[in-house]
Write a structure and sequence with these properties.
Layout lengths: L5 E4 L7 H11 L4 H4 L2 H13 L3 E7 L2 E9 L7 H6 L4 H9 L1 H18 L5 E9 L8 H15 L3 E7 L3 H9 L3 E5 L3 E6 L3
Parallel strand pairs: 4-5
Antiparallel strand pairs: 1-2, 2-3, 3-4, 5-7, 6-7
Helix pairs in contact: 1-3, 5-6
Amino acid sequence: MSDTFRLQHLSPESDLVPRLAALHLQCLPHTLTSNRGVKTVEGLYRHLLSLNHDIYAAVQGVDVIGGVVVTKAGVPAGTSSLLLHRPLSWILALRRLGPMKFFQQLADLVSLRIRTRHLPPHDYIIALYVSEQSRRLGIATELLRQCAGAAASSHVTLGVDTAIDNVTALRLYRSNDFIERSRTRTSILLTRNAE
């Protein structure tokens, strides 16, 4: 790992959670989650952490420059709680994205979740991002290695999805032994087997 950044495993009380949530919105501005607002993302992160899922922040000095959010195999994600957290945020996302884009993303998300049910036991990366000014420094690769190592030590598969047109992400995943499992209209589901 580079000397210029470190990975920090977050707890629900971490003061990095709001900063990581803000970076999520900055790096992934067109997702349903981001369009529900920073307070919603922060609440979702704290909820996942309270259930013992993993969130890592890449930190450089005092700056949060990247992050990864992983739901762990065999640990409930509290899907109802995630959906019902800040329910008015769904209206905000609908306004920001417009009805067509909102419902396309929602349908794609549901389709992906149905497809993941057919995977063997797995950890699942629900968000991986690095600030624009910190890209090409190996941060995303290091975050991905952290997730792959945790999945391997638990003897489970590691899954992730990305947009079909996200060439950079696809290159990253494929260079780290992920293989395509299925596609929706706009996304690709990939997995990496436990070592």
